[in-house]
Amino acid sequence: MNTSPYPHLQTIDDKPVTIAGLKTMKARGEKIACLTAYDASFAALEDRAGVDVVLVGDSLGMVVQGQSSTTGVTLDDMVYHSRITAAGLSRAFLMTDLSFLTYATPDMALAAAHRLMAEGAAHMVKIEGGGELEPTIRHLATYGVPVCAHLGLRPQMVHKLGGFKVQGRDEAAAAQMIEDAAALEAAGADMLLLECVPSHLGKTIAERATVPVIGIGAGPDTDGQILVIYDILGLSPGKKPRFVKNFLDGADSLEAATTDYVAAVKESTYPGPEHGFK
């Protein structure tokens, strides 16, 4: 048993987090704390802090490589960063992004997922899209690939969308997202991730889904939260998104900041109303 003063660490189960465990957390109302990581050192830091799910996001294109979007990230990049992140983990569940256009067909998605899991040691792949991805997710699930479906703001679509904008604000778009979420879960998605959607929409989708729903800028009522690790440490350049909170501000170490983030998610003190969208 952990003797840390943080309540979530005192009661933490040191056994590896699994899909079944994440579903149990949702069922009992325990918030799921997630963060991105791109290497072994940050992965180990997050593991010690009690992070449940670590995402090797294609956000590495922006925060690590210095690109203006995620579209330049290659599958080789994702395999490499997934492998070195996995090396730092013992408990957390590892999810890795399928990079831009590596899942244009179900067979392409299966081949890319095979690399991320076999070479990159990922436990789950994340894929951006709506109802059009139903055949792809069904194909991946058939072959035993765990999938997280990413809805709402899809960074790989930033050029098509014309920028990083809140999605699902009008009634028709919200209804479509609710329908897509249900269809992708029925196709075999084991998790849903909602980015930059109104808080009430995040709540509706989380209440209707039987799989865990993770939010980033999706309000306080999703089953869990995820942020970019560099964002919670105040390291990302430029204007920070509305949903970001700098947990290093007032903390005396990177470890304390990361543990404070996890505690805030677990205790439902983050995100606050100021971090959501209407």
TrEMBL record:
Residues annotated as binding 3-methyl-2-oxobutanoate? 58-59, 97, 126
User: Cross-referenced CDD domains, in alphabetical order?
Assistant: KPHMT-like (cd06557)
| Catalysed reaction, written as an equation | (6R)-5,10-methylene-5,6,7,8-tetrahydrofolate + 3-methyl-2-oxobutanoate + H2O = 2-dehydropantoate + (6S)-5,6,7,8-tetrahydrofolate
Please classify the protein's predominant subcellular localization into one broad category.
cytoplasm
Q: Which cofactor does it need?
A: Mg(2+)
This protein's gene is called: panB
Protein name stated in the entry: 3-methyl-2-oxobutanoate hydroxymethyltransferase
Q: How does it assemble?
A: Homodecamer; pentamer of dimers.
GO CC annotations, alphabetized: cytoplasm
As for what it does, the entry says: Catalyzes the reversible reaction in which hydroxymethyl group from 5,10-methylenetetrahydrofolate is transferred onto alpha-ketoisovalerate to form ketopantoate.
User: Which amino acids does the record list as binding Mg(2+)?
Assistant: 58, 97, 128
The record's top EC class is transferase
EC number(s) from the headed UniProt entry? 2.1.2.11
Which is a Pfam family this sequence falls into?
Answer: Pantoate_transf
Localization: Cytoplasm
Q: Which family does it belong to?
A: Belongs to the PanB family.
